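Lecture notes, unit on protein representations.

Consider one protein chain, 221 amino acids long.
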Amino acid sequence: MRQLFQSRTAWTVGLVAVAAIAVGWPLSWWLRDPTPGPQHPTVWATGYAAVMGWWVGASFLLQLTWLEWAFGVVTVRRHLAQLSWLLGWFLLVIHTGIAFGVGHDWSHAEAVRHTARASGVGAGIWINYLVLLAWGADAVLLAWSPLRYAFRPAWVGGLVHGFLAFVAFNAAVVYAQPSRRWFTLPLFLWLCLEFVGWLRRRADWKAAEMLREPPAGEREV
């Protein structure tokens, strides 16, 4: 059993299966009731799936140690961080397609009007597009070259993750229905605790970071 939990293959299959269920289950609602509309349960369900994907990926990233980041030590946890971050973005892509197809009947103008009714600013729809691009670029970089990801300028990572966190919080808490906030708000509070722990560890990493250039290869444990 211990070997199973330490197997990257088992965790990969598990995460992919969870992501598939998070998409397939809401899609079954649309198959039963294909009536378009922004309040269709498939739209908000896939949206929450994307937020959960972001939360899981961010949690794993905040738990990584300096050895896993800068010294190229490939652990199950780092693999999970890379995979969950990429799968979370994939869930957002699925949600965006469903929101446009089911929620707005593939009409950008209707999406702008719905955004205006929900937030008061129709141009806010472009924030959604920016999230899609920023998260996608971040996830691909993490999957393709985690060492470059770790050694990029700190302000770049702070800007990207701060922006994604701000949008996720607004989508899942500020503009969410009150009954759903009781589920999502504790997740954000937990992530804040994870972030505080990361800041404390980061203070210890800075000295080591000054002594080391990005390594050329990786080691697996």
